[in-house]
Amino acid sequence: MSLLDIDRVTLKFGGLTAVKDLSFAVEEGQVFALVGPNGAGKSTVFNLISRFYTPAAGAIRFAGQDLLRLHPHQVPARGIARTFQNIELFHQATVLQNLLVGRHRHRRAGLAAQLLHLPSMRAEERAHRLAVEEVIDFLDLQPYRDARIAGLPYGVRKVVELGRALASKPRMLLLDEPASGLSVEETQNMRWWIDDIRRQMGITVLMVEHDMGLVGKVSDRVLALADGARLAEGTPAEVQAHPAVIAAYLGTGPTAKAAAHMGDVAAGGGP
Ligand SMILES: Nc1ncnc2c1ncn2[C@@H]1O[C@H](COP(=O)(O)OP(=O)(O)OP(=O)(O)O)[C@@H](O)[C@H]1O
Predict the structure, then answer these.
(1) Where are the membrane-spanning stretches (predicted)?
(2) In the prediction, which pLDDT does 102 show?
(3) What is the mean pLDDT of the chain?
(4) Is residue 148 part of a domain?
(5) Which of 157, 167, 227, 243 is the most buried (most CB within 10 A)?
(6) Whole domain around residue 35: which residue ranges?
(7) DSSP string across 114-138
(8) pTM of the entire predicted model
(9) d(Cα 220, Cα 107) in Å, to the nearest integer?
């Protein structure tokens, strides 16, 4: 059984079919990338999994359970955490406080215990702190732990958002363009973190990413979309070499170059 199963899903926005009869499966422990030109439907797929949208047809299962029965606020409790294209953090709060928000789904103590500062509540608070400190260490965020988000550079905010998702100890992480807006060095760090998230933490990763260099380096499997439908699926090298992908990318300038770069990287070349 796959961890995530997207089964013949269709989603329409009025007259526009943003996702067309799409199926794919993500296995536990994989890094799986969704790629494709602007408007291909990648973010819509994420929003379907997060339950922000309900498909017109098809099924979505996570660990064998029907995700479509859930409300969006119930999805994190099933072990799915996500980051957003436009970083979503509490800007006036510190890094530590934002990461503690990521622990929300694990909070057990009732309101009375919290208000009365009962021992059960204090023990729980210590456990949350410990979990968050682990994430701070893992992502090298010690220098920023007490800094407010509003004063931090974009690249650091991006890592904090990743940390907030990791603090919830998810089984699957949805990363929406983890490298967008990052410098070459920050993108390189992101690559190592994604590798470690999978290897050390055992978390399955589904990501949408335009940086084909990063996709080629970290992904086990790649699904290329265009106009909401599947173009090709396979290893990064297989997808890059697929005639439908080449045809879709031909003549699109920088995107075509990016696809070629993905092939270089998958073949062992590239930086
Ligand atoms: N809320 C919405 N209402 C109407 N149309 C939408 C909505 N969200 C997305 N679309 C349309 O659905 C299609 C798929 O959009 P989507 O954002 O999923 O593409 P994408 O592959 O993530 O693109 P990008 O790489 O630019 O983020 C596009 O044609 C887009 O204009």
Answers:
(1) none
(2) 75
(3) 87
(4) yes
(5) 167
(6) 1-40+53-68
(7) HHHT-HHHHHHHHHHHHHHHHHHHH
(8) 0.86
(9) 34
